[in-house]
């Protein structure tokens, strides 16, 4: 069992020698993969495999982590060979939304789980699975060689689903069916049966001519209602996309103007915020200055200072350095100020205590 996915391993996860933030992020992504799925480690820290059943077949997903992962998105390949809108000819999954938008903070486990869900919801077509010749009765003298070209050409004519297709964004067809419903095997089977009805009346020479003439065979396939409906639908979708793109371009100037306005509002907001901070600080200082306890303390200190001054005046008079008239004037002023401040102190205490 692998060093990572075995819970009973004697070496804990956090003992892995992480020396850079990139390596730590890489390890977190691998942990996410293990939390969501039953994963087999093919090559430590580089390649992992997920196996799951679909429609009686077993599918293997190989997840290859590049050197710069997760700054670089992983490469996910599928086996055995199959056909699915998300998979290209090299069996690499390229159109999965999670892979297309993958970035350093994506969840690799959820991305792979989304791919598995898509395969189970919309099973792929395997190389040994359904073909147009299945359950068809060939007319008398009809060569089996006619069946294989039909299968090959059909697969080339039917358009793939759009790259942005997802389970939550199905395109509505002109007959009020979803895009998936427009290419159901039962509809293709009906069209093939209609073609076979026409071929039943052909002679052996005519059948051999159809089998050997790829253009003639392609003509029969293009006349199938399923194919024509899909071609019309694709044309409509292309026109709609073009109209949306043109409409978006019309809003470009407005968006740029709004961006400028937004930038100005942000600058104004920052300026008002700094002013608010300064005024809030000034308000705090004033609150501290005019706090009741602070005022009472200052008032008590001033009373003691005035009493000390009045005592100094009395000492000067007793020592003979101050005449009676000056003594009375200064001493009475100081005592008057002392009583006024003491009255204020008592009033302050009676109001706020």
From TrEMBL:
Gene3D superfamilies: Helix hairpin bin. Residues 248-275 form a coiled coil. Residues 273-353 form the VPS37 C-terminal domain. Keywords: Coiled coil, Endosome, Protein transport, Transport. The keyword Repressor does not apply. Pfam families: Mod_r. One of its GO terms (cellular component) is ESCRT I complex. PANTHER family: VACUOLAR PROTEIN SORTING-ASSOCIATED PROTEIN 37, VACUOLAR PROTEIN SORTING-ASSOCIATED PROTEIN 37A. Belongs to the VPS37 family. Component of the ESCRT-I complex, a regulator of vesicular trafficking process. Required for the sorting of endocytic ubiquitinated cargos into multivesicular bodies. May be involved in cell growth and differentiation. This is Vacuolar protein sorting-associated protein 37A.
């Amino acid at each position: 069992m692998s060093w990572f996915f075995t819970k009973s391993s004697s070496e804990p996860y956090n003992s892995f020698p992480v020396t850079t933030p990139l390596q730590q992020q890489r390890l977190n992504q691998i942990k996410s993969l293990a939390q969501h799925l039953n994963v087999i480690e093919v090559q430590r820290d580089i390649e992992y495999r997920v196996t799951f059943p679909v429609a009686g077949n077993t599918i293997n997903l190989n997840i290859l982590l590049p050197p710069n992962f997760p700054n670089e998105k992983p490469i996910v390949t599928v086996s055995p060979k199959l056909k699915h809108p998300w998979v290209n000819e090299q069996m690499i999954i390229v159109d999965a939304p999670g892979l297309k938008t993958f970035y350093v903070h994506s969840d690799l486990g959820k991305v792979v789980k989304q791919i598995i869900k898509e395969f189970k919801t919309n099973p792929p077509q395997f190389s040994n699975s359904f073909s147009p010749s299945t359950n068809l009765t060939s007319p008398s003298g009809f060569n089996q060689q006619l069946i294989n070209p039909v299968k090959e050409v059909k697969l080339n004519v039917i358009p793939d689903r759009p790259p942005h297709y997802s389970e939550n964004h199905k395109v509505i067809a002109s007959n009020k069916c979803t895009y998936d419903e427009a290419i159901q095997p039962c509809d293709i089977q009906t069209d093939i049966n209609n073609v076979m009805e026409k071929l039943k009346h052909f002679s052996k020479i005519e059948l051999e001519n159809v089998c050997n003439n790829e253009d003639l065979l392609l003509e029969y396939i293009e006349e199938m209602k399923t194919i024509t409906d899909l071609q019309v639908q694709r044309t409509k979708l292309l026109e709609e996309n073009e109209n949306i793109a043109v409409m978006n371009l019309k809003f470009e100037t407005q968006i740029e103007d709004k961006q400028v306005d937004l930038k100005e509002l942000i600058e104004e907001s920052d300026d008002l915020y700094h002013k608010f901070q300064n005024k809030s600080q000034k308000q705090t200082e004033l609150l501290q200055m005019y706090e009741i306890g602070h005022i009472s303390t200052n008032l008590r200190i001033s009373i003691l200072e005035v009493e000390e001054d009045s005592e100094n005046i009395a000492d000067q008079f007793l020592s003979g350095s101050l005449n009676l008239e000056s003594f009375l004037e200064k001493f009475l002023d100081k005592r008057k100020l002392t009583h006024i401040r003491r009255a204020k102190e008592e009033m302050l205490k009676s109001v706020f205590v």
